[in-house]
Amino acid sequence: MDNTKQISELVEIIKEKKPKRIFLQLPEGLKTISTEIMDALKNYEVILSGDRCYGACDLRIKEAEAFNCDLIVHIGHRQFPKKKIKSSIPIIYYPWKFDTELDEKTKQLLLDNFIKIPEWRIGLVTSIQYLDLLPHIADLLNKLNKKTLIAGDILGCWIENVIKNENKVDAFLFVGTGEFHVSGIKTKRPLYFLNLENFQLKNMNEDLFKHEKIKLAKIASALEARSFGLLVSSKPGQLNISDIKKLRRIIKKLGKKSYVIVLDEIENSKLIGIDVDAFINLACPRISEDHFDKPIVNVADFLSFFTERKILKH
Predict the structure, then answer these.
(1) Fewest CB within a 10 Å sphere: which of 41, 108, 175, 239?
(2) 3-state secondary structure of 59
């Protein structure tokens, strides 16, 4: 679907809400069309968020409230599947679709790549933008006598469509761009990545094995810490205060200290100077893959090592 058609469709959806002032959010890759969208919405007052937008978990509700907006238009993602985010302002989610046309030369290139996949039953996953492409990919795999299952879309932190289909396939193929989403897939099945930027196929299993080794090394390093900073994000879809009490109780029983630190965007530069030995991340699990000067582990990984039962035994 081209931009003009999608913008027209978006305008019609917005008309039904009859807003006066709109707060507009787009991910980095779509900001190039932000003014085009704003021009199409010339009958409304539109405020564009210039902040980075990482997903539907990253709604700028407070900013929209500050500008007295009566509608948030969030482009590029669908409604956050992990939990319903409370908002005083109505939200329109519009998952922008990218072009899914494949010419004959590209189809042949894909067939040449797909023949390298030895598994028979292939589960297809992608990000929301490329869902319409999966039936075309399935058709090509079927020509090679593969059995395909369109599992659906995933996020970097939400892979339910992989988990529930794991026993139905021999391998998964992620179709998309960049490795953010595909590197978040945890599966016992072989995992392949079709990069739509160059139409090359990559076996992800070696990379995922390396990621797992790095994660375990970080956990081992963090367990040597005597004090922890508990990192909590104020982003509506990442806010997690339910684990704080349990974490602090466990850390105290270990004879160690903990401090709660809240940030909008969790990054290394904001934590320099805070006198703790390690951090426990209670926000997006992908944050721990970024560079930090001190050890950082995700809350789920920490709790898997230190349940209250284990602590009480010792």
Answers:
(1) 108
(2) coil
pTM: predicted TM-score of the whole model, two decimal places:
0.85
- By three-state DSSP, how is residue 251 classified? helix
The residue extents of the domains of the chain are 3-94, 104-208, 225-309
DSSP state for residue 178 in the 8-state scheme: S
Quick check: 202 and 193 in contact, CB under 8 A? yes
Q: Which of 230, 229, 244 is nearest to 275 (CA)?
A: 229
If you search the block for the tokens 């869902």, which residue do you land on?
131
Cβ neighbour number for residue 233 with a 10 Å cutoff: 21
Is the confidence at residue 309, as pLDDT, over 80?
no
3-94 and 104-208 have identical folds: yes
Cβ distance 296 to 279 under 8 Å?
yes
Q: Indicate the residue type of 57.
A: C
Q: What secondary structure does DSSP assign to 297-309, as a single string?
A: EEHHHHHHH--HH
Distance of CA 203 to the CA centre of its chain: 21
CATH code given to domain 104-208: 3.40.50.11850
H helices of 101-204, where? 104-114, 134-143, 160-163
Strand 71-75 and strand 21-25: pairing?
parallel
Helix (H) or strand (E) holding 231: strand 227-233
| Rounded Cα distance, 118 and 215, in Å | 29
Q: Top-level CATH class of 225-309?
A: alpha beta
Query: Token digits for 15?
Result: 């008309």
What does residue 234 show for φ and ψ, rounded to 5 degrees?
-85, 0
The Cα 241–Cα 189 span in angstroms is: 33
Q: Which residues of 194-211 are buried (b: 16+ CB within 10 A; e: fewer)?
A: bbbeeeebbebeeebeee
When pLDDT is cut at 50, 70 and 90, the band that residue 196 belongs to is very high
What length is written for the chain?
314
pLDDT at 82 over 90: no
